[in-house]
Amino acid sequence: MNPFAVGTGNDWISWIFFMAMWVGFFFFYPRLMLTQILWKLEKVSMELEALSGKSRKYLIKRVDKKPDKNILESISMFFEFFVIGPVDLDPNGIIKKLDHIILEQKDRFEYFADQVMPKADPETKANMMMGFSAGIELYMISKIVKHYVEVVKETKSYQLAMILQMQLPFIEKIAVSMARGTKALAEGQPIGDAIGPYAAAKLIGNKNAKEIEEDTVMAEVLMDGRKLLVIKSKGPGGRLGRPGKAVEALVEKNKITRIVTIDAAGKLEGEKTGTIAEGVGVAMGGPGVEKSYIEGVAVKNRIPLDSIIVKMKPEEAIHPMPKAVKDAIPKVIESVKRSVSKTKKGDTLIVVGVGNTSGVGNSERDLDEVDKWVEKEHKKNEKNKKKKIKIDDLFK
Question: I want to staple 359 with a disulfide (CB 3.0 to 4.6 A). Which of 114, 190, 300, 345 is the partner?
Answer without folding.
Answer: 190
